[in-house]
Fold these 2 entries.
Entry 1:
Amino acid sequence: MEKVNLREKFALFNDFWSPKIVGELNDSYVKLVKFKGEFVWHRHEHEDELFLVVHGSLVIKFRDRDVRLEPGEFIIVPRGVEHLPVAEDAVQVLLLEPKSTVNTGDKNDQRTVTDLRRI
Amino acid sequence: MEKVNLREKFALFNDFWSPKIVGELNDSYVKLVKFKGEFVWHRHEHEDELFLVVHGSLVIKFRDRDVRLEPGEFIIVPRGVEHLPVAEDAVQVLLLEPKSTVNTGDKNDQRTVTDLRRI
């Protein structure tokens, strides 16, 4: 049982769209990820997903609107809701989601990651 | 589905040791709480609990050591592990834990809160 310093963990990787596991509790993982650019429209059929912005600015597009998240802001995307993360510049995000969650949800994409690294 | 700004939410309350619900996902709540002083030794028999410090400095005492958390640091306390949060000065903390979790765990205390407010 060690504490986790977010800044130190984000300094350990530079690849985008590839979440790293930094903690687990109950049935969920805490993950850190860097986004840059536009991801892929997707949804998670059975999992709600939390996005907390730590550094930078993130837009999450929904089919009916866009939500911009700044540092210290989070949103919970309920299961079944299509969404598209877009980062104009690099952004650091903390994710919280069930262990079963795959980053691209119902879409297969070259950025799909199923074997997550722990840092 | 609205975003949550942590700073704005923390400005809405001033009582200590009384977690407020600011989000729910899967089987868990996201809660915000202000601590000041020393809480009560307790454990959660069936629930892992995440403490993320947003503002201020928090010590979590365990039976064998103390861990100090600064802003941007979190720790996950596994189920069954006794712990005692201590805040020398006021501290703002984000909690993530199953909906079934009671703040004082296996202890009854005048600070036990079972009916949490949503903000």
Note: Strands of chain A lie at 4-5, 20-25, 28-38, 49-55, 58-61, 66-69, 73-77, 84-98.
Entry 2:
Amino acid sequence: MAKKVLMKGNEAIAEAAIASGCLHFFGYPITPQTEISEYLAKRMPKVGGLCLQAESEVAAINMTMGAAAAGSRVMTSSSSPGISLKSEGISYIAGCDLPCLIVNVQRGGPGLGGIQPSQSDYYQATRGVGHGDMRLLVLAPSSVQEMASLTAEALDLADIYRMPAMLLADGALGQMMEPVDFSAFPKREVPEKTWATNGMGGKRKKNVVNSLFIDPNELENSVVERYKRYAEIEKNEVKYEEFMTDDADIVIVAFGITARICKSAILAAREAGIKVGLLRPITLWPFPKTQIASLAEKTKAFISVEMSMGQMVDDVRLAVNGRCPVHFYGRTGGIIPSVEEVTAEIKKLAESL
Amino acid sequence: MAKKVLMKGNEAIAEAAIASGCLHFFGYPITPQTEISEYLAKRMPKVGGLCLQAESEVAAINMTMGAAAAGSRVMTSSSSPGISLKSEGISYIAGCDLPCLIVNVQRGGPGLGGIQPSQSDYYQATRGVGHGDMRLLVLAPSSVQEMASLTAEALDLADIYRMPAMLLADGALGQMMEPVDFSAFPKREVPEKTWATNGMGGKRKKNVVNSLFIDPNELENSVVERYKRYAEIEKNEVKYEEFMTDDADIVIVAFGITARICKSAILAAREAGIKVGLLRPITLWPFPKTQIASLAEKTKAFISVEMSMGQMVDDVRLAVNGRCPVHFYGRTGGIIPSVEEVTAEIKKLAESL
Amino acid sequence: MAKKVLMKGNEAIAEAAIASGCLHFFGYPITPQTEISEYLAKRMPKVGGLCLQAESEVAAINMTMGAAAAGSRVMTSSSSPGISLKSEGISYIAGCDLPCLIVNVQRGGPGLGGIQPSQSDYYQATRGVGHGDMRLLVLAPSSVQEMASLTAEALDLADIYRMPAMLLADGALGQMMEPVDFSAFPKREVPEKTWATNGMGGKRKKNVVNSLFIDPNELENSVVERYKRYAEIEKNEVKYEEFMTDDADIVIVAFGITARICKSAILAAREAGIKVGLLRPITLWPFPKTQIASLAEKTKAFISVEMSMGQMVDDVRLAVNGRCPVHFYGRTGGIIPSVEEVTAEIKKLAESL
Amino acid sequence: MAKKVLMKGNEAIAEAAIASGCLHFFGYPITPQTEISEYLAKRMPKVGGLCLQAESEVAAINMTMGAAAAGSRVMTSSSSPGISLKSEGISYIAGCDLPCLIVNVQRGGPGLGGIQPSQSDYYQATRGVGHGDMRLLVLAPSSVQEMASLTAEALDLADIYRMPAMLLADGALGQMMEPVDFSAFPKREVPEKTWATNGMGGKRKKNVVNSLFIDPNELENSVVERYKRYAEIEKNEVKYEEFMTDDADIVIVAFGITARICKSAILAAREAGIKVGLLRPITLWPFPKTQIASLAEKTKAFISVEMSMGQMVDDVRLAVNGRCPVHFYGRTGGIIPSVEEVTAEIKKLAESL
């Protein structure tokens, strides 16, 4: 029988990393994710791992790149402003085809913003975190259990596809306490890191990890090759949850903590006789666009509910592609939309249909 | 009569900045935009300005923020990896409602990538350069003349709307020499900077420049307020060029250097009897979505041609919203598509219609 | 008639620098010398100069080196811990034969120590501030007037002998207010900087500023050559003040603020019939060893009075070379010895003779 | 029977550190001491230790301070310019009464200087490495065996007297290979680190490690207290070697690699009938001044032979205090004086007596 432990979301990430064999962590403190560092600072030495507080976020991401190049499972974590600081390094990691896990426990922005939860780094995570043609695997947990299981999954995916993965959480999930079952998540088979620059011991040719290609043909080839892998991922690794979508006239798209609020709002709206359901993307990249397109054939309208001024709604619109209207409802700056306001939004939309 | 000067694109940016009263520049060298720094290092002292090579890109953007806060017209420039390093600072500038100009003379990515021209920072410029809900004004020059005139325009827009603007150029435009007429661009009226933190002299209350709001309501209000300004910009400041779209069955959407190649391809395809035209966005944000939507009513297909793996194509699709098919053609890694290959792409599409 | 201005010692340094044509200043704030930066931040722009607050002391000294290499008169200032941070740069400046002025407004040490005045960086200033065989010109003001006039003198000496000079002041002198006559100090003739790396304009061979010599013979030659200049300085530039030494049985050696206290103590001791005088070194390097040696022929004992645990006393002993006893009296950690305790020390010594 | 291992001097330092229980090392590469880092990077993980290459020398010394504060045995190493960069941190460590070992494998200076061996950081090591009243224990090995045994001794002394110790070596000793017997050096009893800030576990009052004292009386008391310990060290820990001084008319004072050359020169001069001997200081601070003073009673002259322009000669003169003449012979910039030139110098002096 599985043993459940009551933990904060931030701690669940940390413990899941260790449980998944990630024994290198490089961080720099920032609210609301500092518990990850704190937890690992205590735990890592006990399991023979390394938790290092770098002198800055820029240093932390470059140390992460170094450890990844040497073949270690490695994680870094920060919150919104710190992820911006890491963005050059993230692009380098992508350009070097290195696996690692970057945790973003989002807070309100832009700038210093606030310390309350937010989902306003969606654009950055899915499109622009770094310069150049590149993608991150982006996984969005919605419970403390998923903070753990998606950490494990992201580490596996990163290794399988040799690319950086991001766990896009938020301050509410980071601070929330729920029971976690560490036996519940299966491990995937990951390839051996024959490309790692971890010393040859005279046994093989020198490995090189590099993102610089002076010849543009070589650079283009390397990018095109990478996009073939991205296409594989879009085919094989999309994850989402559906809730009451079967008969839904209205489909809410929401991820993370927001999806939980939407479920309550859906139950309330159903009681009022409104047929509404939820599509919760678990992978934000690859985005569940095929499933949304298919729902668009039978539903009357979508609403993207986000803790931002509207970012994922672009991806919903791209998937729906004009088949039906796509609305948006959001709060920002650290405010979590209430069940009541989402229910009201559903009702308003239902009346207009 | 206007006097024209033969200049490199990078120099045109630099000279236009000075001509527009931008007397503060903070940079750090990176190919292919180093001529901007070099030019300003020589010219700024002669016009009473300041050109400072900072110790890093992170320092340069923070100095830019400081000068902006003090009410100076200020510019920084870099190329792709350097822009990633600046991204935390850019989000802070946006969050502080400060005007400044950030020049990105794009090179191939991700990572160190190459030193040849590219347009693969489109996503970053238009969506994810920094964390949080925020936008940049993004202007995309297509000639050395526009390197100058859009620099002037971007500085004015930044001041008018109190937000950072980006000139999104590329290495080809930066290195290309063409005649520039500095008398040709009109100056806009810009408001006085009554908010600047430049000393009170006992005459007014203390100004505060800040992006931190501990109370989430205050933070949300500040973001919502900012998005009202963004809506104004989307209404008033969209710029684009149309070329042979009147009767076009196929509309190419392309910006920057790529648009010039597309014009030649269009002329070639027209000779072959294909009705094809070009919509060239000059502002990438705000994106000319209304005009594209309106073209979508009468055209049969769009192709987004880009020097990337396909980024602006998302915005074209969002504007077209399913009204007709949207195709993509691109080269990446520093390779500029040739007139021949774009023409071939047009012909292939024309045959399939 | 000379016009006197009432100023703080720190301000007198700053104003004297400008009056002496030093238009470049690079600093970083630290108590008790921050007024120098503050004053120059306001004044420099008005006289066409540059006052830059660097990102750290290490940056400030390297900017100082750069400005010096380009032929500018340049000054940096700090207090004790900040001078330690600058020590690599100071050694580089010495090894490159570059002139500049480094101001040390000493506070108590070691470590963070305190913010009260001290003279405990004497060893560092005269012997070990940087690695390698090298010297600094070290001038020790004893009044606000000298804070100004020795700043001017140090800048001239640095230029004449192409080496870094240090003004070794302390927090008491920095904060003290006294009238200063800026017309009082003569300017020396300084050579043209034909070695400066300030652009050739096609008129001469490239100048090189360098401290790296891979061939040890070249390095030795460069050091030996420099020590010939040092020998010239020891012959020509020793400065000191004598006070009542003619008939003195006891000679106090003291510099800076301590020398002023010693004068009062001497007057008090003279009233008690004790023949005591003062030798005040104004240059700490070159040290007035010949004059002390000559006093040692006729006096019965020396006391070195310092605000430290005893550092200059080594130089006094080296000069006296066993001819008579050399005693020490000092306070440290920010405590200025009182007239009473110095008088008591004199009396105790007089009785033992 | 003791087992001897053939090793480079730099490696001997590294291995001796581990053998002495020093399991934390923080460094930054610089010729000619990089082998220490290289060796420890490989060995530390195998013995459960930590070898970290910091982002700069400044970071390395601050990490050293942190590890020392937490009660670890800790070492950092560098060569001349890097030691200058560490000087603020060294003063902080001294001001916090923390034990650690700083290795300086000297190269020619000032500035970048050269990469050949030198002894020109003597002044810095013995007097001015940091601001404020402070001392380092300074040990000067003269063989690869001593590179090892004095590393062990320095670590013990640092712990016993709670202060930083420096191993002042040079590039020749660092690169030289000789057999080392690691069983040969005795371990001293060191006190428990009850002052370490390593977590209270609820068992004791909070420890504080600090060098800041706002009250000058407290600061003075802390310095005076420290100087009492320094006096103990001067009484108990002086180490030197004498060679043929019994009947010597001339006593050479030389340390490190220079002392070995002087021994050969002494043998050559003895063959020529000159009575000459050697006093080799093993501790440079505390300096063997009593023993030199006592030799000064019976010898006719001293020569200080150094790889510098003359630095230790000050300490010889201070010890001799005029009892007989003190001469100097030196080479600098990376040149090791030859046996022939030292012999010639001895003969020249012998003739003049």
Note: Chain C has a mean pLDDT of 96.
